[in-house]
Amino acid sequence: MNIDKLIKYWKLIRPKYYNTLTRILVLSGIMLLSKPLWLDFLNIFFEKLELSLIGENDWKIGLITIVIALIYNIIHRYIDLNHERKSKPAFENVNKHKLKSFGELCQEIIPILNDNKYIFETTGPNSNIENLEPLRTDLTIWNKLKNEVIAPNNLAIKKLIELNQNLIPNQYENVFRAMVLHIDAFDEHLRNPEFDYSNFQFPKEFQKITLDASFEEAKTDRSFLKKINWLERRIAKTNTLEWFIFGSTVYTPAKANDFDIAMLVEHISIQMDNKLSKEIDALKFDYKIKFKQDLHLTIFNKSEKLDYETFADNNTLKIEM
User: Fold this and answer.
1) Distance, CA of 212 to CA of 227 (rounded, Å)
2) With 31 labelled, which of 17, 110, 168, 212 sits at a CA distance of 20 to 30 A?
């Protein structure tokens, strides 16, 4: 058996968000399977006593309990892993190239732009004069990723633009042309490092245009709206004052790995309110099972309302409920 199979099997039996019940059942089964030590002591001390938790079938019940716990864990772990998204370069996640609307086009482009931005900010040269950090001099990773990831990402964007030019509104045509020129110049620079592409910089308006169009498109996504309606019904049963949806799910709902919500709750402390804590755990669990996606909750209590409002202001693209 190779190491990949061993890793796969380990992941299958490893407890995750459902681990509490699994552990309780397994522990209970072990206690029944091996009669508790304190009962043995009592039986020895009182010779005529034959104490037992249930009866002579203790070990059978214990074994059955352990088997049930493991089956429960494996079923839920399978559900979890079966819908676990694998990490890969953004250009490999392009669903289709011929699209129906400008919003759909932008929703395919945005994740690729974000991928490039993250790589540049974490490994590329610090060319921003406002950056107070020391100039990054070891560009080994940057040189590797700009060839293996950024270049194919750029080509994917170019292909999307060229195949869907008829969807681009007239007022944005020049910005999209500038983006294609930037991609061509960057590609030429990779082939010939002596080529200066400083006159073909990334058009800053491109990011905002595609992000705004993606956000508007998301508001009409039927699957996204179905999730919102389900969450509205469930959250209405909790003592929540207000909440909003933010993050990548509000502009690329079909591609988002998770669903982000910020909540302002009435209670002073969630940890002190056992009922609310259970309701939140149940909400996350049920959402995961129904939509095969993680639900991430950022929760503020009523004494943190200013923090909640600041957090809301910092997330300019959001859907308030």
Assistant:
1) 21
2) 17
CA–CA separation, 287 and 231 (whole Å): 8
Q: Are strands 258-265 and 240-246 parallel, antiparallel or unpaired?
A: antiparallel
- H or E element in which residue 258 lies: strand 258-265
Q: How far apart are the C-alpha atoms of 232 and 85, rounded to whole Å?
A: 26
Give per-residue pLDDT as tens, 61-99: 666 666 776 676 666 666 555 555 555 656 566 666 778
Residue-level pLDDT at 77? 60
pLDDT, residue 25, reads 59
Q: Are residues 125 and 239 in the same domain?
A: no
Counting the structural domains of the chain, the total is 3
Cα–Cα dist 26/157, whole Å: 51
| Residue range(s) defining the domain that contains residue 254 | 222-320
Distance CA 230, CA 259 (A): 13
Same domain, 95 and 212: yes
Sort residue 247 into left (φ over 0), alpha (ψ -120 to 50) or beta: left
- Higher-confidence residue: 6 or 177? 177
Average pLDDT over residues 272-301: 84
* Domain final residue pick, 154, 188, 218: 218
Least confident of 8-12, 138-142, 167-171, 198-202: 8-12
Residue 263 · residue 321 · CB < 8 Å: no
| 196 and 229 inside one domain | no
Query: Quick one: which of 275, 294, 272 has its CA closest to 285?
Result: 294
What's residue 27's pLDDT? Answer: 63
Same domain, 299 and 199: no
φ, ψ dihedrals at 298, nearest 5°: -105, 110
Mean pLDDT of the chain: 77
Domain boundary among 218, 234, 255: 218
Alpha carbons 55 and 33: distance in angstroms, whole number: 12
